[in-house]
Design a protein that fits this description.
69% helix; 6-stranded parallel β-sheet; binds adenosine monophosphate; 23 helices; 2 domains
């Protein structure tokens, strides 16, 4: 049966297994990523039972990368990208060189040719987009200075890889010691052509894309069809990525990033970003599953020492180089550590590179296996690096507070780390959500000088509020510790002004558990939602539609039935 429908079975088995193992991982307090990767190992050819189609899994993963990079582009502007170029370009180049040299060294020790070592080292030098972005998104660092540097760095690595993939076949002959290989001048040509194509793509996007894409989205938004709007977002992100790869030979990821960046200049971008979220998450999960599928767990027993050395280069060699150069540029330790932690893993580019290397006869199969196993181990250990980073930052905060030194080295905005700092506010109003409803509420409360704390999960909104001097906690109010940090126990009331009553119900229940007497007012769109929110402990639930009806009746001088 599954042989007839390989696409369906790969998607379904992948998502179901990832869900089950992800849930188990969450229960035992490790990152769900580990569960997704193990789901892949179970579906892979090296373990008994069902074997999914690797090619299909890889393509699904590629869609995940496109949607993720599109999302990143939406939060990025050209200005952001250029503002980090001074550190991202030299940083990425030095770090790629160091990791590549270490890889060549290990290759030598394992008796491979120089070419084999070079491919191996390059594969170890590039970080995975998906892993990096997931880590930054989980910690809400995408919009911070550290996050921007990490992403800029990633873009440079991406460009370097595009160049490598083009150059490798051209210099393979030379590397294998065949006299008929490339000369310097014959190498210059492919480099120039590739750079020309990348430049062509960027210019095309800035000149044509910048006009056409926002225009198209505005037009679709005006048709009023949500379905068409969603479709437009996907068509643009996937279409530009694919077109860019087809016409300009740049990677899907880079194409999608630019499509997103162009869109970020229009005010519709936030809506566009939200439309891509659910699919983006599903495909990101499939990415991890597809990585897991590549790995033969037996390599741990077969080649323990070379594997250990490979993992060491990925986790420590690369990080040390990145740390050193970021510090050298005068950035604080916290920034350097964030960049190091972000880069201490490898992923999709490495897979593409090693397959090419093996195909060209440069890299032995053993090298590919080591890279694959190194990838899965580094991806599994990556959350650990971030946990250590969180701990380091928390310690630093504690020390800074003890010394009451306001001049903290890190100028960055507060990001949620463990544990979240608790607000000093008392007798205040806690407002969850600052959209159409929340913004009206907050304006009125500010005019009345009522102490206010907002919990909001959209970074742009957060920045705006902070610039107005409003205390904000960034993130999903339903996440652990958020309500404690907002001191709902000491608050005058909680206003849950978000449209999703399911999530609203969770927030209400959590708040109710913290304080039996807190007045909780929530927002609903239907009778069922009212019942749901009241059941979870809301004192008053306002149904938007009813209030609109009342206001309309008022306008024509009629009164609403009670
Ligand atoms: P609106 O429907 O226009 O009133 O917007 C709702 C606002 O609530 C948006 O700005 C969302 O980003 C925000 N929001 C939705 N869910 C949550 C949540 N669970 N925690 C924090 N903010 C949220």
């Amino acid at each position: 049966m599954e042989h007839n429908t390989p696409l369906i079975s790969t998607v379904v088995v992948g998502l179901v297994l990832a869900f089950i193992l992800g849930l188990v991982a969450q229960r035992i307090r490790v990152s769900p990523l580990v569960g997704y990767l193990l789901a892949g190992v179970l579906m892979g050819p090296f373990t008994p039972g069902y074997v999914a189609d690797q090619n299909i899994a890889n393509e699904l993963a590629e869609i995940g990368i496109i949607l993720l990079m599109f999302g990143v582009g939406l939060h990025f502007s050209l200005k952001d990208l250029l503002s980090v170029k001074n550190i991202a370009i030299p940083g990425a180049i030095v770090q790629i060189s160091v990791a590549t040299l270490l890889g060549i060294g290990l290759g030598e020790a394992l008796g491979w040719s120089f070419g084999g070592g070079l491919v191996f080292g390059l594969a170890l030098s590039v970080a995975s987009t998906v892993v990096l972005l997931r880590a930054l998104q989980e910690r809400r660092l995408v919009d911070s200075e550290r996050g921007r540097i990490a992403i800029g760095w990633l873009i440079v690595e991406d460009l370097a890889m595009v160049l490598t993939l083009v150059l490798l076949p051209a210099i393979a002959g030379l590397l294998k010691g065949e006299g008929n290989g490339a000369s310097m001048s014959s190498l210059a040509m492919p480099v120039l052509i590739t750079l020309g194509k990348v430049a062509g793509f960027v210019i095309f996007m800035l000149v044509v894309g910048r006009r056409v894409i926002p225009m198209l989205l505005h037009y679709v938004a005006h048709t009023g069809s949500r379905e068409l709007f969603r479709l437009a977002v996907f068509a643009i992100s996937l279409g530009v990525a694919f077109g860019a790869a087809l016409v300009f030979d740049v990677s899907f990821a880079l194409g999608a990033f630019f499509a997103g960046m162009i869109l970020s200049e229009s005010e519709l971008s936030q809506r566009a970003a939200n439309e891509t979220l659910p699919l983006r998450d599903a495909f990101a999960v499939l990415f991890f599953v597809s990585v897991g599928m590549l790995v033969d767990p037996a390599i741990i027993l077969r080649e323990p020492l070379p594997l250990l050395a490979t993992v060491f280069i990925i986790l420590f060699g690369k990080s040390a180089a990145a740390f050193g150069i970021v510090r050298l540029f005068g950035y604080p330790t916290s920034t350097a550590l964030t960049i190091s932690a972000s880069l201490a893993q490898i992923g999709e580019f490495s897979f593409i590179l090693v397959s090419l290397g093996v195909g060209l006869g440069l890299l032995p199969d053993r090298g590919r296996d080591l890279v694959l196993a190194g990838a899965i181990i580094s991806i599994m250990l990556n959350p650990l690096f971030f946990a250590l980073l969180d701990r380091f930052l928390a310690d630093k905060d504690a020390k800074a507070a003890a010394a009451s030194e306001a001049a903290a080295v890190d100028k960055e905005k507060a990001v949620p780390r463990v544990p979240l700092p608790e607000t000093q506010l008392k007798d205040h109003v806690v407002l969850v959500g600052h959209g159409r409803v929340g913004s009206v509420v907050s304006r009125a409360l500010r005019l009345n000088n009522t102490p206010l704390l907002v919990i909001e999960d959209t970074p742009g909104v957060v920045e705006r509020l902070q610039s107005l001097g409003v205390e904000v906690i960034t993130g999903n109010a339903a996440a652990p510790d958020m309500l404690q940090a907002a001191n709902v126990m000491g608050a005058k009331g909680l206003l849950v002004a978000i449209p999703d009553a399911f999530e609203g119900g969770q927030i209400v229940a959590k708040a109710r558990a913290l304080s039996p007497t807190l007045p909780i007012i929530a927002r609903a769109h239907s009778e069922e939602e009212i019942a749901h929110l009241k059941h979870h402990g809301a004192n008053v639930v306002i149904m938007g539609e009813q209030e609109i009806a009342k206001a309309m009746l008022l306008q024509i001088g009629a009164t609403a039935p009670v």
